[in-house]
Design a protein that fits this description.
disordered C terminus; Elongation Factor Tu (Ef-tu), domain 3; six-stranded antiparallel β-barrel; six-stranded mixed β-sheet; 15 strands; about 230 residues; SH3 type barrels; elongated; mainly beta
């Protein structure tokens, strides 16, 4: 899946030894299913029919202590059980082998030059590093994306710290990959501190000049009708 003005799940991984390619997360192995080596998958892609085809090869992101570190998996078949995707991999023949893969991340090679074919959709690595503009002025740089069920969040590094920006059209109306910029129209308070309110819920007002008496009205203010 690619990053867009909605929920998304593509996440970039550090480039592999080929400098011209990037590895993307397309799924996470969750737990064994049955006794014949099947394992449930949490999908991180909008297009499982394209990514999870028989013969597809996946790199694994696992701890260095794992026996699967540095190895790949070849998909035999992807089935659906009660709306849950379940994968069968080559040489994973029993439940014990499947359990040893639990929590592993499935990665695929991706050409960074490949653009998304979807409208208003981008790969994460295309967004990270872009300058964030507000009213034409740079206010920060995108450093990270979080993919949440409701919406994506952009991490924007500013001079005063990180700001979490909802990646929705109303707040991020323009993404210009060629120019290296993202334009934001944030609500008040997202990038600046809002004045504190007093106990009554109103912003604290400056004291009136001492020259005004207790019954005086500030200059330019209509007197209160009697």
């Amino acid at each position: 899946m690619v990053a867009r003005f909605a929920s998304t799940w593509w996440t970039p991984i550090s480039p592999n030894p080929k400098p011209e390619s990037t590895r993307l997360r397309v799924g996470r192995l969750t737990k064994a299913h049955g006794l014949k080596g099947a394992i449930k998958i949490e999908l991180y892609t909008d297009d499982p029919d394209r990514r999870f085809v028989p013969g597809a090869v996946f790199h694994l992101q696992v701890p260095e202590s794992s026996p699967w570190y540095g190895k790949t998996l070849e998909l035999l078949e992807l089935k659906w059980f009660n709306t849950h995707p379940v994968a069968f991999f080559k040489d994973i023949a029993d439940r014990t082998a499947a359990e040893s893969l639990a929590k592993g991340i499935l990665l695929v090679d991706h050409d960074p030059a490949e653009a998304s074919t979807e409208e208003d959709a981008w790969y994460d690595h295309q967004l990270i590093g872009l300058s964030v503009l507000r009213d034409g002025v740079k206010v920060g740089t995108v450093t990270q994306l979080d993919h949440l069920p409701a919406q994506d969040l952009l991490h924007v590094a500013t001079e005063t710290g990180d700001v979490m920006v909802p990646f929705v059209k109303a707040i991020v109306p323009t993404v210009d990959i060629a120019a290296g910029t993202i334009t934001v129209t944030p609500p008040v308070g997202l990038f600046e501190t809002v004045p504190d309110e007093d106990a009554s819920g109103h912003e604290a007002e400056d004291a009136l000049p001492s020259a005004l008496g207790p019954e005086s009205e500030p200059e330019g203010t209509a007197p209160t009708p009697s």
